[in-house]
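The data layer described in this paper is built around a simple, fixed record for each protein. Such a record has a labelled line for the sequence and another for the backbone structure tokens. For reference, a complete record is included directly beneath this paragraph.
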Amino acid sequence: MAFFSFLQQEIAMDLGTANTIIIHNDKIVVDEPSIVAIEEKTGKLVAVGHKARQMQGKTHEGLRTIRPLRDGVIADFNAAELMIRGMIKMVNKNRNWINPSLKMVIGVPSGSTEVELRAVRDSSEHAGGREVYMIYEPMAAAIGIGMDVEAPQGNMVVDIGGGTTEIAVISLGGTVEKESVRTAGDDFTNDIMEYMRRQHNIRVGERTAESIKINVGAAIPELDNPPAEFIVRGPHQMTALPLEIPVSHQEIAHCIDRSISKIEQALMSVLEKTPPELYADIYNKGIFLTGGGALLRGLDKRLSDKTNIPVHVSEDPLHAVARGTGIALKNVDKFQFLLR
């Protein structure tokens, strides 16, 4: 019997636009960027995750790096399948001789259409999933940060990922109000690339813009302990001569302001539609931020000033959805809100 339970393998996956995280036996076993490197002619997988990320922006014509997910949904079906397969292989490093029948729970954006959900299911099944369940990301995030989602009280989660920002009010094991906006971490990165080009005449790639965001990204210009300026190096737009430019957090707060305003609008629109009893619960407990975007300096203060409700950054926001997906995996029979 033990042999058969060995054959059946269970994994929980947070399939994100920026990062994919896999949980197996309650441990995070894979935490890699959602990117693959593929041979142009043969379509063969060359690298996945961190290795592929190092190649990004540095490939030759025989090699391509692809981010299979855009705005939280699968944009390149083939690459997504190769990526899921490659990441599952990382879990099974020592078990090359066997293809276990996989039971999977996968986090998906709450604004996904039927077609988008089918794309996730098909990719997972092609990569070896026998039983595939899906859970909406804000629900997974709420479970992951320790909320009792089945209690008769209002919980509000704002999950800012790479491709989407998911805002949801959760009560009694269901989503009462939700909004999924396709403005998130990737948009901040694009804003920074655009700003550097326009303001400083310097060309920067996606990886450099991402570094700027991590080092000096901020949602408000006045911070209590501001980060030091970040030095950006790159070619001048016209002359292609090298430039070195210091960038401050105030500049970044200014350049991503418009994208953050879209998230604020979505948040206000969900609060407007929330029933008064649940609104009172949220006012007492506060709003919880999860996802990589929650790490943006000063974002909690900015949203709190906007809504007049306390806003908390959950601990380890990057892994909240993955942890919640892992808990859902153990309670597949109990949680009615899983999508089959």
About this structure: The first strand starts at residue 8 and ends at 15.
